[in-house]
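Protein modeling request. Please complete all fields; requests missing the sequence field cannot be processed.
Requester role: graduate student
Desired output: 3D structure, token encoding
Chains: 1
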Amino acid sequence: MLKRADNVFQSKLLEGYDRTMNHSGVSGERFSARLAELSKIGLTEQNGSYRIGFSKEERKAKELVKSWMINAGLVVTEDGAGNIFGKLEGKNKELASVISGSHVDSVPNGGHFDGPLGVLAALEVVEAWKVTGFKPERPYEIVVFSDEEGSRFNGGLRGSRAICGELDMDEEIQKVDQQGNSFEKVIEGDGLTLQGFKESKRNLGMIKAFVEVHIEQGSTLERENAPVGVVTGIAGPSWLKISFHGKAGHAGNTPMGARNDALVAASEFVGHVSQIPQSISKTSVATVGKLQVYPNGINVIPAKVELYVDIRDINQVTLNQLTKEIAKKALEIGGLHGVSVEYEQTLNVAPVPIKEEMQHRLIEAVKANGIKPVLLPSGAGHDAMVLGRHVLSGMIFVRSLNGISHNPKEWTSLGDCVQAVHVLKTSIESLTAE
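Delivered output (434 residues):
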């Protein structure tokens, strides 16, 4: 979809775009031109995006967005964690801000919409207000968060966690990237310091609300034939490490009835994992994505299987219930096969439900723009999940072609992007009016 010729990506975006969506100051041409400019930074040979956290590519993208913020008349600042803020003062400067934005870093060879869509949608709201002469009652800020994806140090949401005071700096300074570079060395290369990170916590009492626009990274909106959706909650992941311990033996000389095959037990368990979530909750999911067999020989009965189950839900009660049921099933199946089972929870992140107050406001914004509301959960983590633990937060999802994300084939039509801008604009105007 993207070629190295400068105008091809934008041309693809504009192809078939309904220009009647250009109204109320919103411009699809401006939005697409900016998305195309960002796509050139860190462009890979596979036409993907390579802008990992604290890289020169992420910095270049941030600086480009800063230039657009300045041209839009915003007061631009950067905190000690490298988060970029563009502030438009409201009629009443003393009121808490409404904030919108996302990130511009990517996974290695990722797509061009994950993150930048939310940043540019937030900026387009300001551009539209310039055209219409609208001024909000309270301040409005656009944010570009640092290192949301976390590809460099195996743990993301670093910028949003910094402003919320959730970073453990003693833990951060122990981190090393794949090239052996320490966290401190990497951030210093980006012009940042450990002390700056420590001092980047904001006064959260001066944030009224946060709204993030993001591609869905799934296929629900496609199935519903809807350009946008309202997120009802952001799932918290619970990871179980489960080990099945059997007995190794010769594959030829050990009778079938005399075996304690760890892989047979583990295989039966994996089959059940896909069936358990729907018995617990409509929003529950569970996945076995990593599995190791020991000793892993062609002619050896497996003595041990170690696997990980990724369990998610937007409700803490059902998340806990599902985690217990999956562990119980592992023990049950192990017993049937004469295989011992051990398990431990290696990750437990609380889900963040979106408050009904925010859901209602976003639903009304969707309706106001002539779109049928679709409600859906987010199975992935986002900066809104971090902010949502502290301030009123919401998310607007935008349709993803074939549900593809973190991939050069990631695509969202310009029409869907612009409709998301209109929904965001309506919701921000509502939030800043109070």
